[in-house]
Design goal:
Blueprint (H helix, E strand, L loop, with lengths): L8 H30 L5 H13 L8 E8 L4 E8 L4 H14 L3 H4 L3 H8 L2 H6 L4 E2 L7 H8 L3 E3 L11 H5 L5 E8 L2 E9 L9 H31 L10 H18 L3 E8 L2 H8 L1 H18 L5 E6 L2 E7 L3 H16 L3 E2 L8 E2 L3 E8 L6 H17 L5 E3 L1
Parallel strand pairs: 12-13
Antiparallel strand pairs: 1-2, 1-6, 2-3, 4-5, 5-6, 7-9, 7-12, 8-9, 10-11
Helix pairs in contact: 1-9, 2-9, 11-12, 12-13
Length: 400
């Protein structure tokens, strides 16, 4: 006679508890490693990269894809800042196999030198980077909802069709995702959207719980990095024009020349001087002189590209570092700036009877490495060209 023995419930409970304990130990180890990683830097881009890597790495939370949004308080919207994720299932397998073969750990993945290369080649970010998710109370977007509620939003496969008209989900094609708010001092400063498009692994309660713990640390890390960036920016900017100051100019020009030398790329320096500025100050007062400085600074910022650096060189002089720019391209940019300034009407304050004023600038230009091999030589030649422009009649551009 065969007697069937029931499974011992005590053994079953012990095994369940052991499994839960093993998961808890793994989660604690992951959080400890993530916490240590976030303490390695205050650079905002690096912090964002560390956070997203922790969300998507096999040694972290292990999601397939992640997009990090930050809150733009001025425009009252969410803007995508960074994304990590494979382009396809085949690409995903190659990445995961490589990581497995070379045994990469989290500290290998989050190195600062990985940030720029990964950001630039992220097709996932390119797909969504123009999106601005309004935070208006009437916006039905699930991202706006997660922001306002300050709670994770798990959109399961049976509910994803409800959002078929959402602008973000039309670009971020998926069948399940989680939207995780990032908080600091009970205020949401960003969101992470994550999914498992390629593995199709279901998102479970344990995954959400660990994700929430990471998000609590991430929100504080972003807040600290943002405050650091603000203080750093203020220490490097001119108080009147809000352009980069002279100290920043000197340091950044050294870095950009080193980069241009290493990559065999051109770099052009413009130095601009406001014509007859002393006379303007004497006639209209220093307060109105400051108005002119600020308005010209705005023209320079509007005329500069993302990778250029508009600086207040000193007094009534400005400088613009034009990266990856030849002399011919620099001349076009300089002439455009000269024309904008010459055609601009400056509205003076009431103490100058509110009258309108026109001013001009003289611009000098030199190019690395065509004209100069060192920073000092580049500045000297641009400065010399500017004085040639000034003594040749003003309101003109001259190149060395």
């Amino acid at each position: 006679m065969n007697i069937q023995m029931d499974e011992n419930p005590i053994i079953s409970n012990v095994e369940t508890l052991q499994a839960k304990l093993g998961r808890a130990n793994r989660d604690l180890a992951v959080l400890y490693e993530i916490s240590n990683a976030m303490r390695t830097t205050l650079d905002l881009d690096h912090i964002l990269y560390i956070i997203l890597t922790c969300v998507t790495a096999h040694t972290g939370l292990g999601f397939n894809r992640g997009i990090l949004f930050l809150v733009n308080h001025k425009e009252r919207c969410l803007e995508p800042q960074m994304a990590i994720g494979p382009d396809s299932g085949e690409h995903a397998q190659k990445i995961w196999q490589y990581i497995s073969d070379v045994k990469l750990h989290l500290e290998d993945l989050i190195k600062a030198e990985n940030v720029t290369s990964n950001i630039q080649r992220s097709s996932l970010l390119q797909a969504v980077k123009t999106l601005k998710i309004s935070l208006g109370p009437d916006n039905p977007s699930p991202l706006a909802r997660a922001y306002h509620e300050g709670m994770p939003l798990h959109i399961t496969p049976d509910k994803i069709s409800q959002y078929k008209d959402d602008a973000f989900l039309q670009k971020f094609q998926t069948n399940e995702l989680v939207i995780m708010p990032l908080k600091a001092k009970n205020k949401v400063n960003g969101l992470i959207v994550a999914d498992n498009l390629f593995t199709q692994k279901p998102i479970r309660e344990d995954d959400l719980r660990l994700f929430m713990m990471l998000a609590n640390q991430a929100g504080l890390a972003i807040e600290n990095a943002s405050l650091y960036e603000l203080v750093r920016h203020q220490s490097h900017t001119d108080s009147i024009t809000n352009l980069w100051n002279h100290g920043f100019f000197q340091n950044q020009l050294s870095r950009e020349i080193a980069s241009a030398r290493a990559h065999h790329s051109p770099l052009t320096l413009l130095i601009l001087d406001i014509d007859d500025f002393k006379k303007l100050n004497d006639t209209c007062g220093h307060h109105n002189g400051d108005i002119v400085l600020r308005e010209i600074a705005n023209i320079l910022k509007d005329s500069s590209r993302e990778n250029d650096y508009a600086c207040r060189y000193g007094g009534e002089e400005f400088a613009i570092i034009l990266t990856q720019t030849t002399k011919e391209q620099g001349l076009v940019i300089a002439e455009r700036i000269r024309e904008k300034v010459a055609g601009y009407t400056f509205q003076l304050s009431a103490d100058a009877d509110g009258r309108e004023l026109r001013v001009t600038v003289s611009v000098g230009l030199s190019t690395f490495s065509e004209d100069a091999q060192t920073k000092e030589e580049l500045i000297a030649k641009a400065d010399k060209a500017m004085y040639i422009a000034k003594f040749s009649g003003k309101n003109r551009v001259c190149a060395d």
